[in-house]
Design goal:
Elements: H1 24-32, E1 41-44, E2 47-50, H2 58-66, H3 72-79
Antiparallel strand pairs: 1-2
Helix pairs in contact: 1-2
């Protein structure tokens, strides 16, 4: 999974405008692990499955960074130079 998206897509479940879609605790569960942008994966058996080359969800990254709680993979990718939190659009309307 690549960490190159910087702004959430219009249908990102982490956007404030999508407030009715998932509870905060469910979003925290999503963001705790690898959560790919749903536009870069496929749906199989009722679950979103990442494809090779899928992109990490910018909404999830921003959600965690706003709370100063990057997950382990985010920290690893940052150390490897494959993720740069300073490029995230922190002004995005993410919960």
């Amino acid at each position: 999974m690549r960490y190159t998206l910087t702004t959430p897509c219009a249908w990102c479940p982490f956007l404030k405008s999508m407030r009715h879609s998932f509870s905060r605790s469910k979003l925290e569960q999503f963001a705790a692990g690898q959560f790919h942008c749903h536009q870069t994966g496929i749906w199989r058996d009722g679950k979103a499955q990442p494809l090779p080359g899928s992109l990490a969800c910018a909404g999830a990254l921003i959600f965690l960074e706003k709370r100063n709680r990057p997950n382990q993979l985010m920290r690893i990718m940052e150390r490897l130079g494959l993720y740069d939190r300073s490029k995230l659009n922190m002004k995005a309307e993410v919960r």
